[in-house]
Amino acid sequence: MEYADGGSLRDYLKENFDMLTWRNKVSFAYQLACAVSFLHDEGIIHRNLHSGNALIHQNIIKLADFGLSERIESLTTSTEFFGICSYIDPKKLSLKSYTLDEKSDVYSIGVLLWEISSGQPPFKGIENYKLIAQVVQGLRETPIP
Predict the structure, then answer these.
(1) Which of 18, 57, 97, 98 is deepest in the core (most CB within 10 A)?
(2) CB neighbours of 46 closer than 8 A, spacing ≥ 6?
């Protein structure tokens, strides 16, 4: 794996958020969307997108940790639960046998866009079991002021 001088997106935002312009944030959002679009065009679903798996090197985002990735044509329904709750497609949280697909990656990107915009990890301070119940009932992060 290549060295990422900025560390993970989570760490980068923690250390640099106050210095980021909206142009920087939009650039990160665009890079994430392009990276995931490329994966999908190549027939790959990441299935574990979160700010710890997006690395920053010279202001360029690089996706990491493809351990849970699968080829689109080989996706199967699974009852396994993996990943970080706040980034997981709500359908997977409510339907244990739901197959994570391209739309699931898009949901995770939406959560990452919220994090890039706010500088905070999503649902900060909410325990996983409470978060799952609340997301299944329709809870989403609060709007950014």
Answers:
(1) 98
(2) 36, 39, 53, 63, 66, 68, 69, 105, 108
